[in-house]
Write a structure and sequence with these properties.
With about 60 residues, the protein is mainly alpha-helical. Helix content is about 60%, strand content about 0%. It is built from one helix and no strands. The longest helix has about 40 residues, at about 10-50.
Length: about 60
Amino acid sequence: MPYLRGLGLNFHAVCFALAIAALATVIFSLTPIVRLSFSEMREGLTECSRGRRECFGGRSARI
């Protein structure tokens, strides 16, 4: 096809596309990790807020 002869890859466009793909990969892979750590932290805080002895190293806490 004669109109496709002038087509080529632009180096800057390819680099931009790769950078966007890498950024999206990092963002979408870190999001579940961050959510998981916050849910574990929230679970630990709710368990210890009930006054369980295990949260204080097995000893009673006196205030």
